[in-house]
Automatic annotation (TrEMBL):
It catalyses: (sulfur carrier)-H + L-cysteine = (sulfur carrier)-SH + L-alanine. The keyword Transferase applies. PANTHER family: CYSTEINE DESULFURASE, CYSTEINE DESULFURYLASE FAMILY MEMBER. Belongs to the class-V pyridoxal-phosphate-dependent aminotransferase family. NifS/IscS subfamily. The keyword Transferase applies. Keywords: Iron, Iron-sulfur, Metal-binding, Pyridoxal phosphate, Transferase. This is Cysteine desulfurase. It comes from the Bacteria. It holds the Pfam family Aminotran_5. Residues 4-371 form the Aminotransferase class V domain.
Amino acid sequence: MRFYLDHAATSPLRPAAREAWLAAAEVVGNASSTHGAGQDARRVLEESRERAAAVLGCDPIEVVFTSGGTESINLALHGLWRSRAAEADAIVLPDAEHHATMDTVSALSAEGAAVRAVPVDAVARIDAEAFAAALDGAAVATALVANNEAGTINDAPALARSTAEAGVPLHLDAVAAWGHIPLSFRMLRGEAPPAAGLVAMSVAGHKIGAPVGTGALVVARSARLSPLLHGGSQQRGLRAGTQDVAGAAAFSVALEESAKELEAESVRLLALRERLIAGIRLAVPQAELLGDPVDRVPGNAHVLFPGAVGESLLFLLDMAGVAASTGSACQAGVAEPSHVVLAMGRTEQDARSALRFTLGRTSADADVDAVLAVIADVYARASGPRSASRS
Ligand SMILES: Cc1ncc(COP(=O)(O)O)c(C=O)c1O
């Protein structure tokens, strides 16, 4: 038996998204072609954009379909920074962002961007005052809505307000939050001035049951953004290239389904998560929950196992059929300490000893039971002088 507790890395494809994906893949035609076949594809695409926009809380024209979180973040940060580079150069960057953001900002710093780091607190929450203080004259600011490792939910409305007041465009990375907490681009944007405040928001399809390779960057109508890809004039000229009609159809269905289920799923996953955390603490009294104990995405349990080697914990759990993560999947396999745990003020040893369990749509009691049945033994073995490891 296999037990999947890594929904934050990627979540299983929803049957309805699969159906919409396959049906739209049968539509012959390039959505940019003017003939009937092209127009058939265009209808499916634009209907998907409208459905996506209704859930995301924006106008259809503000939905730019992308290949997922990494591309959306790259487009937002390159695009916003480049469009403002003549007037301002600084990027406001909180310390515990996803690598897609951190590495994009490093690339921009090689092009001349100045980076203004903003600390997070002991639960990985962005310090909203320090964030506001760093905004003066900045070109662009970025922030996670919820931290993908610690699960902590940031005060996104406050961050958006401070950027609107400072006249700085803000990108929000909603990849780890979308589908887990109620969010609306329009509500977060509020009455911000045309090119400031929240202007761009990233969402990834595969985190909510759409296929890998789907997602969107919501870009406010009034935002100034340079494209990353050059070519055709698709999607307001912001993302050139033949559009993925089937991906858009599947993504819009996954957005709708996850929105419909959000309330009930939050309650269900929270109960499962609390049972998981309580059970781990009972089996391993040294274990400590990281991140905010209350204000976190419902399916996230980020747990520190003091003295254990994270990679060994992962390996031993995998041997028992349990899939978890040491943090962001993009870093798994590279035995680096978690920059998120370090940013929370923990030691390098702690930053190598945390595990992230994430529950989602297909999670059930059996998944929690599977972890609890083995965790004490796994911890003991991963803490020994020659702890088990893949390498
Ligand atoms: C918060 C956050 N941002 C961005 C990404 C990257 O998204 P994608 O895997 O769709 O490229 C992830 C993926 O783990 C994430 O959790």
